[in-house]
Amino acid sequence: MHTALLATIVALAASSETLRLTVADTPREALVFAPQAKSAGAAPVVFAFHGHGGNMRNAARTFHLETLWPEAIVVYPQGLLTRSPRDPQGKRPGWQGTPGSDDDRDLKFFDALLAAVKEKWKVDERRIYATGHSNGAVFTYLLWSTRADVLAAVAPSAAPSRAPLAQPLPAFHIAGEQDRIAPFALQQATIAEVKRLNGCRERGEQWADQCTLYASDKEAPLVTLIHPGGHTFLKEAPALMVRFFQEHTRQDHASAKK
Fold first, then answer.
1. How many CB atoms lie within 10 A of CB 172?
2. Hey, what domains does the chain have and what are their CATH numbers?
3. Nearest-CA neighbor of 104 among 14, 41, 23, 170?
4. Is the dihedral of CA 186, 132, 146, 153 positive or negative?
5. How far is CA 57 from CA 18, 29, 245, in A?
6. Which residue, 49, 110, 181, 187, has most beta carbons within 10 Å?
7. What is the pLDDT of residues 135-168, one digit of tens each?
């Protein structure tokens, strides 16, 4: 790791805190990095969700979004023990994937967590974003399905959507062609649905290395990063996510027609 980046991480780590909430009688928590400098302006908020079996601290080390966008409030929520096809007994933490599952415990957590962040810090409500890897990406898509009116953009990595998407939203999807945990064919199907819903043009153009931008007639573009690997989180992903988020505010697409 470069010395300058390490120094930045160490400096910002001192500004992190753990938010603890009780949601539906269940203790929940999230690691939050807030800007050290007090600004008169409202700050964007990024929610970053770990994968199944992960945790909020590992997510912070992996995404390190606060080092790339120090002006933002970055929230790393902690999942609860969750059953999945690869963890049928639910021994590891994760997130609900569909509306109504697990009594919507994680949607309720997101709502409560966002409310707590707004109460503690000055938030720019036009710039609230969500990202996640694997099961965290599944939950990111669920937020799109159920909380699209809150979000400005999403950036799922290595997972298809398991919930119906009904409202256009700028999206940045990362997928590996050799992914066998979240099969590439399923992710391709989600990408095709996003293009249709967002009114994207058929032909894309280069947005960054390996990234294709599909412009949208509904002000809800899609950027895809298709790589030849498997179910991995790319080291270059966080910087690209931040760039994508910085290009979009909620007013960009709030008036888009379905």
1. 27
2. 3-252 (3.40.50.1820)
3. 23
4. negative
5. 10, 11, 22
6. 49
7. 999 999 999 999 999 999 999 999 999 999 989 9
Radius of gyration of the chain (CA): 17
Q: Which residues make Cβ contacts (< 8 Å) with residue 43, sequence separation at least 6?
A: 34, 35, 71, 72, 73, 121, 122, 123, 124
Helices assigned H by DSSP within the chain: 3-13, 56-63, 65-68, 105-120, 135-147, 184-198, 237-246
pLDDT digits (tens, 9 = 90+) for 21-43: 999 999 999 999 999 876 668 99
Q: 27 CB contacts (<8 Å, ≥6 apart)?
A: 20, 21
Number of H helices, E strands in the chain: 7, 12
> In this structure, are residues 28 and 202 in contact, taking their beta carbons and an 8 Å threshold?
no
Neighbours of 196 (CB within 10 A): 10
